[in-house]
Amino acid sequence: MDALVDFLIQHGQLGMFISAFLAGSILPFSSEVVMAALQLGGADPWGLVLWGTLGNTLGGLLNYGIGRLGREEWITRFARVTPDKLERGRRWVHRYGAWGGLLSWVPVVGELITVAMGYLRVGWLPSVLTIFVGKGLRYYAVVFLVSLY
Question: How far from the centroid of its chain's Cα atoms is residue 4's Cα?
Fold first, then answer.
């Protein structure tokens, strides 16, 4: 894992985009380490927020697409979402709809939310917008906190 993180850091903004995509998808990865290292190394913080948000949003949309496939057995098998977690996500998304995308940045829970949004056929455009805003606010917060260091 350290070799992957080093590789991503060496590739600057592209590395930020890739790490954010991985972190936003169902794959276990943390893009904050890459972002902090790049920012402390002198990278443009606004570029990091932009590329991080875009990559993380696309990762969330991959989850949405997996959910959109609509076969619970595929979601539990390939996304490794247990049936009880999928049910919790389903109830949550029924309650909040596309607004749930604002919390798509939360580790583990965010992946469940985005899979459930696709599974329940929440509108694509409102989903993209709320996922983008939620993930953008997350990266803005990370850049702000690192700047305090």
Answer: 18
